[in-house]
Amino acid sequence: MMAPHMRPTIEGSARLPRAYTPNHLVQKILNSRSALVGERKQVTVFFVDVKESMHLAERVDAEEWHRIMDRFFAILADGIHRFEGTINQFTGDGVMALFGAPIAHEDHAQRACHAALYLREQLRLYAQQLKRLHGMNFAVRMGLNSGEVIVGKIGDDVRMDYTAQGHTVGLAARMQQSAVAGGIYLPSQTAALVSRFFELAPVGRIRVKGARQPVRTFALVGVGALRTRLDVSRARGFSRFVGRADEVATLEGVLSRAMSGFGQVVGVAGAAGVGKSRLCQEVVDRWRAEGLIIAEAHCQAQGKSLPYGALLDLLHSFFGSSADEGAAAKRRRVRSRLRRLSRGLEAELQLVLEFLGTPDPARPQPAADPGPRREQLFALVRRLVQAQSAAEPAVLLIDDLDWIDPESDAFMAELVEAVGATRTLLLLNFRPEYSAAWMSRTPSYQTLQLAPLAAAASDALLRELVGDDPALGNVCAAIKERAEGNPFFIEEIVESLPWRSRRSRTSVVRVADSVSELRIPATVQSLLAARIDRLPEQAKLVLQAAAVIGKRFSEPVLRLALEMERTAGEQSPAAPPARDNRDTDTELASALRILQHVDLIHLQPAATQVEYAFRHTLTQEVAYHSQLQETRARKHAAVAQALEVVHASRVNEYAALLAHHWEAANQPSRARQWRQRAAAGAVG
């Protein structure tokens, strides 16, 4: 076994094999300023090790044990990186990995569970091989835990590692140590995040070191039947569909044009949680009930690593098959559908079956070369769209297009072109971050921007979820103010409330009397943090600085605060060389354009100077609280200084605000001075 001082890490280790190197986006974030300074993140920590490794190592030669463990680590790296996790520590006979850091993931717990199940199967096959070759009972145990951690680089210039610290990490390690051979254990807080997507088995309450009470523990058994948030909402019963009458009417009109032979492509665009998937599902379900042919694909964040995953999902839906359907039944279903559409398509049967994973062994195999195979596949889908249109109109839905895998995304231009001059509606939905070249050159394409719910619609949704109890008036008003018309945020905040009875929801254990008493649910926090982390580094730094200023911020104050923070940082011996102010202004302008494009901020139209506001208050809160207190204090000081300069002619009007920033900057004497000036101004 490796001695502790020999354990490689992903940063600064010459012993780290190529296979363990994180992807380019992870490496970019690891090299960023935020990784150096440190951040708060919602993550799932994953531990895995070999059970009784010392006993196993004694049974074979040292070189052979090294080869066994090297292959073991390669399997772990493949499985963890497959779901965009990061190995941040090798423990000699296992690893510690993070899902949600350095790249934040809104589904970090699901990714960790998928990775654990994938690794359990891969390591089971490896254990069978070792049993056959060495008579060795090779077994692993795994542990997961989700929660907030402090992540960042620790150490010095000689050795600097990226790691996570906090109680969440310790409990994940205890889960792994408690697990039986082959087991995957997780505590109740992680189970709450994944129970709708995975099959869990209760283990009981386990006493673990460092915990005051026994920890309620579950074993991860397998993947559940539900795949998406929409599936979960459907299973528990959709909340009332409100506030989208105009959008539904628009989509009905587009469908009418498509059914007349003018193929249409519509992209429903909007912020995360605003209801894009729900709107599309509502109209699609309505059209399906009316007898219209529907084929749909649902992209998933963790599915980006599956080549052609979205296209595969779409074809499964088109043929009415499923991934777990028997091979013979699937072949009969596909053959029958092709024959009904067009006799000429039967020649393509083997290509379809091979792509769906059930080739007919009695037929010749299609071209194995990826280039010709891809072209054949694209041509086939074009012919399927045209043949379906000739028979009867159809709707193709691709949900969460921003999560589409690169191979399927390359096919989108072909699909869009195929829809033209057919009786087909291609319905898409995506977040503002997604864009494609085909959008600007496709005459039949239009974007339907989905805005937050209006006040009346938010009230109707809250009545549906909470009821009409007057005692809950304060909490409903607080939720409405906090969610700002985002239906997913409304639903998640309601779900997170401490209901006395979840079944009847007649009262709340502690009624929140103000917005500040409502905590951001972990699901919402992870979703917003993931959007922020995928920004270019400069745009993220600008967003974090703006979050310290507040919900609204002026461009002059932001620019000067950034400059003052940078100047203060240059006093450090290790600081980068000074930069031209013109470069700073260019970077700021570029960052602000990016933040507007992805709909995180917007320009305030009636401001006397260039002023922006966060599109959503919760985005500002997540961007603010993800920063460490020391970092925020430094930024607050820079903001206070900037306010004093920019508003020097009427600084007394900002006395209370300056007192707030100096207080948050841990400078109580300056805060006291400005509080006194604010009080004097109020009296005068």
Topology:
Layout: H1 24-30, H2 33-37, E1 39-50, H3 53-57, H4 62-82, E2 86-90, E3 94-99, H5 108-134, E4 140-155, E5 160-165, H6 167-178, E6 184-187, H7 188-194, E7 198-206, E8 215-223, H8 229-236, H9 245-259, E9 264-269, H10 276-289, E10 293-298, H11 309-319, H12 327-341, H13 349-355, H14 370-391, E11 394-399, H15 406-419, E12 424-430, E13 445-449, H16 455-466, H17 473-483, H18 487-496, H19 522-533, H20 537-549, E14 552-554, H21 555-569, H22 581-597, E15 601-603, E16 611-614, H23 617-625, H24 629-646, H25 655-664, H26 668-683
Parallel strand pairs: 4-6, 9-12, 9-13, 10-11, 11-12
Antiparallel strand pairs: 1-3, 1-4, 2-3, 4-5, 6-8, 7-8, 14-16, 15-16
User: Can you give the helix content as a percent range?
Assistant: 40-55%
Class of secondary structure makeup: alpha/beta
Mean pLDDT: 86
The name of the CATH superfamily of the largest domain reads: Nucleotide cyclase, GGDEF domain
Which percent range describes the beta-strand content?
A: 15-25%
Give me the count of strands: 16
User: Number of helical runs?
Assistant: 26
Which fold does the CATH topology of the largest domain refer to?
Answer: Alpha-Beta Plaits
Shape: globular
Low-confidence stretches: 1-21, 511-515, 572-579
Give the count of structural domains: 4
Provide the gyration radius in Å: 28 Å
Distance between the termini: 75 Å
Biggest pleated sheet: 8 strands, mixed
Assign the CATH architecture of the largest domain.
Answer: 2-Layer Sandwich
Mind telling me the CATH class of the largest domain?
Alpha Beta
